[in-house]
Amino acid sequence: MSNPDTTGTPARETVILVPGLLCDAAIWEHQIAALSADYDIRIPALTGQDSIAAMAAHVLADAPPRFAIAGHSMGARVALEVWQQAPERVERLALLDTAVHPAGPDELPKRQAMLDISANHGMTALADAWLPPMVKDGLLDADLAVRAALYAMVERMSPAIHRAQITALLGRPDARPLLPLIGCPVLIGVGALDRWSPPAQHEEIAAAIPHARYVVFEGSGHMAPMEAAQAVSDALWQWMHEPEGQAA
User: Fold this and answer.
1) 72-112: per-residue pLDDT in tens?
2) Does the pTM exceed 0.85?
3) 43 phi and psi, to 5 degrees?
4) Rounded to an integer, what distance in angstroms lies between the CA atom of residue 67 and that of residue 64?
5) Which of 142, 175, 199, 235 is the most exposed place for a label (fewest CB within 10 A)?
6) Taking a C-beta distance cutoff of 8 angstroms, is the pair 161, 181 a contact?
7) Where are the beta strands (DSSP E) in 39-167?
8) What is the rounded distance in angstroms from the CA atom of residue 117 to the CA atom of residue 202?
């Protein structure tokens, strides 16, 4: 469904692309280029909130009455919370390289170790420690353009932003009860080599959502929108062309 503009002329459909932890619009660069000719693409900044609920409310405050929303990693948790807060406004939902379970007891020390690096040594040191497991083995050495883009994205953040986003993730809700209730077209996508949010996890998410479409991005780790840029853009294009109110 298109949102009418003030003159009554049908406007382009809005697609909100929600970045993940320590990410910004750069993670969606290929998808913005692929979709912007046909859709109104919006990228929210999640740098001023410290809970998933507050991030979702921020997205909704700047969103049109109806929209499609895709999220990557933490951004997918936010997208799902957007659906929970305003399901009547969400035309379609895409969740990429993510999870739906609450934080477990083993997560806090891992997150705290990263927080200590950003607080004590800065964002470049954090990128050195955090990025390698987030992508497929060897990518940062083999593809210097992707390496530069990922490092620059992390370096645009700050230790305070990092702490706020980690606080949001550690306090995240259990989203599993929401999944069977979703009726709009849903895309579940994951990098085949994602070690942080592996494919098996996404298979469970897709199985719990009626008629969800499940896509694996070959040769990609957790940063699929950048690592498997064309495949992710193609999947989102197909998702946007699925009949509204009916998933593939």
Assistant:
1) 999 999 999 999 999 999 999 999 999 999 999 999 999 99
2) yes
3) -120, 105
4) 7
5) 142
6) no
7) 40-42, 67-72, 90-96
8) 30
